[in-house]
Amino acid sequence: MPQVFCYIYYYNNCCNKTEVFIIKILQLTMDEAVEISKVISNEHRMNILKILSTGPHNVNELSEKLGLPFSTTAVNVKKLEDVNLIITELVPGRGTQKVNSKNYDRIIIDLFTEDVEKDKNVITIDMPIGEYVDCQAEPSCGLVSESDYIGIQDDPRSFYEPGRREAQLLYFRVGYVEYRYPNRIPYGNIASEIQFSAEICSEAPYHKLDWPSDITVWVNDIEIGIWTSPGDFGGERGFNTPDWWLTYFTQYGLLKHWKINSNGSFIDGVKISEVTVNDLNINEKPFISLRIGVKRDAVNAGGLNLFGPNFGNYRQGIIMNVHY
């Protein structure tokens, strides 16, 4: 039976800065998730939530703004209450009146199926994008934290600033970044599969949806394959992108999954090379290196953007999973 997790976010606007916190995670049954989906698949109810995002309203105010009869508005408010998407409180006014408020700012639903017994022989490490050990970057290039630029835009020297560890977005037109993950495979065991996932896209001036870029990945200095990013995505704010970052800049990427096992190397399940996990000599080093970059002689040298958990659409850095 698939499980459904709803991640509930709280937005705190203070001092010209928006802070985002995950305040609770709801684990729902499939039936509960279906009921929520049914309730919000209605234009009137979505409009009610949109109005309530500006502040609390009573049913009369909602009815007036929606241009709907009071009775119709009340029915839709009740349906939203039943699935806990809004709350109703009694507040003093002209007498006591019921005022409705939006309960959540955002709900993200992940659907997946898990085996009852998880694979215990797996190591997972989420690497911050600023924790690279080597790099080469050519303009346009830069580093961005959650609140400001790091160093100077389009200056490769900024990639060596101590503050790079706070990076939530890094970008360059040509070059690479290399990470080294600790090798935690217990002695006497061997790796059967290694996986990486990262939010990534091309790098264009401002943004450009049609801007292909050939992005290459190396593991332990061995090239495992090339993926062509279709574009640099902007114009619509990423779920986690801070408010100060202008919408016509890069906003989010695509979550890509690389996998190397005994059958070869894959991206999102599609085979990209014959390099196997045995070719990587994982047990011979105290670390596992990952290099992501764009070659100078690439057919599509369209740059690269890498996203951290507080930029883009996915709350993660560069995740490595090693199965042994």
Automatic annotation (TrEMBL):
Q: Which GO terms describe its molecular function?
A: DNA binding; DNA-binding transcription factor activity
Q: Which SUPFAM superfamilies match?
A: Winged helix' DNA-binding domain
Domain HTH arsR-type spans what residues? 35-113
What residue ranges carry the coiled-coil annotation?
none
Q: Which UniProt keywords apply?
A: DNA-binding
What InterPro entries does the entry give?
ArsR-like_HTH, HTH_ArsR_DNA-bd_dom, WH-like_DNA-bd_sf, WH_DNA-bd_sf
Q: What protein name does the entry list?
A: Predicted transcriptional regulator
| Source organism of the structure | Fontibacillus panacisegetis
